[in-house]
Amino acid sequence: MPPLMALMALMAPEELLHEDVQVAYLVGKQPDQAGVWRELYVYRARRMVHVYRIESHGRRFYRSLEYCSDARYCLRDMQPSTAHREGMWPEWERHGAGHPYGDSHNQTKSAVITRDWMVEANLSLGRETYLPSRLLYGLVPQALLDTHAFWQDEDDHVRGSPRGMAPAACKCSPRRKPAPLSPQVRGYPRDVSSCSSILLIQLFAGAHVAFHGARFDRVRPETMPNL
Fold it and tell me: pTM of the full predicted structure?
């Protein structure tokens, strides 16, 4: 359990929620910290709560799942604690895992890894940034985080390739830098027949889970949802 700290202040949007709404969004703040510290999603149908830690990485903010009141319904591999307890768990948290104040990554130093279009495995033909798995906890299924390495391009598309796959195994993109492409077709090379093992994921602004995903060789610009 995290060390004792000031209670988290919860804030909700000023607009009243519609009576049929299924997911409520709240922001958690620490009195002695600036900015958003936690994001909470309350699910009406499942009667559960997800708590995401907000992390700054490469001058961008990412959310990472730290707590779920029912670990059976989250994308991160989380297990309820098996430690000794003084009393029975509450009914609503029978399968809870993690901690709302948890911090699975508390290193103050980090490095941002990028690659340009000359790298053979770069499919966007632009600058791509490596996303450590912790930045996708709860957003992308854990099974994919364990088997794939994910890179985010300049248009915020996320591509995952099997870990350990040789760069030559995927020859979708030519190494000759092409003429500038329009936003509608940027990052979608014509020859994608050898990219059946590449995953393309869309993380929309404000979305707390992956909104769209498919194998890269089956995706075309017109099939991706509009931002």
Answer: 0.75
